[in-house]
Amino acid sequence: MPASIFDDFKLTGQRALITGGSRGLGREIALAYADAGAEIVLVGRGEDSLKETAAEIEARGASAQIIIADVTVPDECKRAAQEALALPGGIDILVNNVGGRKPNTKIEETSDDEWREGFALNVDHCFLMTRLIGEAMIERGKGGRIINMGSISGMIINQGVAGRHYEAGKAAIIHFTKALAVDWAPHNINANCISPGLFMTEPNQAWTKKAPEAIEKFVSCTPMGRAGNPREIAGLALYLASPASSYVTGSNFVIDGGYTAW
């Protein structure tokens, strides 16, 4: 008998590296991958939160490694990649999840340093981690999966906020992913992008207090009438990491409660 379709969603024998993997969307992706049988490598700045998420993963019967690093700093990003690649078996799945909007400054008031810091937070580490882990995937010759976290902000312009380095950076991530997919398809490496709308992660919970009118406007423009729960991204991330998506590459998957539909 043919194998069950659910077998195509298993990650048994795979190892996934997730940046920003101890909180928010990254944490939910890590837990989903653990449930599917993957070994997990969490990269992040906070030792306590990394250890907490690693303990949750291990409680589900999966193994977890933590690497304390700020991937927006090039030398730390390189070190994190090297530590992950030193593990027996290498990396099969890379999730570039780190990003954010900081600072919230109007274009005409944005300094050179703020612009560069915005791209370091949202773009530069994605390229660097992808290059390092992807090179190893190519050399190993077994293919792999790369999932970059974009945003609908790379497709539309947010209302009621500033800091346009975020929109520009996320647009770059979406297009970089498409270029990556084309270039590395001959190596059996699938590259895709997830572009979330408003999800109630810790930074957005803080935004609710700082700029409640912006959050209210966003929700009012969402057909489903609410923000997303971080867990609601896990199924899509699992699909893109699993054999079920073997013919999917170069795509940008929007998950936004319908915000961009009108």
Automatic annotation (TrEMBL):
The keyword Oxidoreductase applies. GO terms for molecular function: oxidoreductase activity, acting on the CH-OH group of donors, NAD or NADP as acceptor. Transmembrane segments: none annotated. It holds the Pfam family adh_short_C2. Keywords: Oxidoreductase. The keyword Acetylation does not apply. SUPFAM superfamilies: NAD(P)-binding Rossmann-fold domains. It comes from the Bacteria. InterPro entries: NAD(P)-bd_dom_sf (IPR036291), SDR_fam (IPR002347). Belongs to the short-chain dehydrogenases/reductases (SDR) family. This is NAD(P)-dependent dehydrogenase (Short-subunit alcohol dehydrogenase family). The lineage of its organism: Bacteria, Pseudomonadati, Pseudomonadota, Alphaproteobacteria, Hyphomicrobiales.
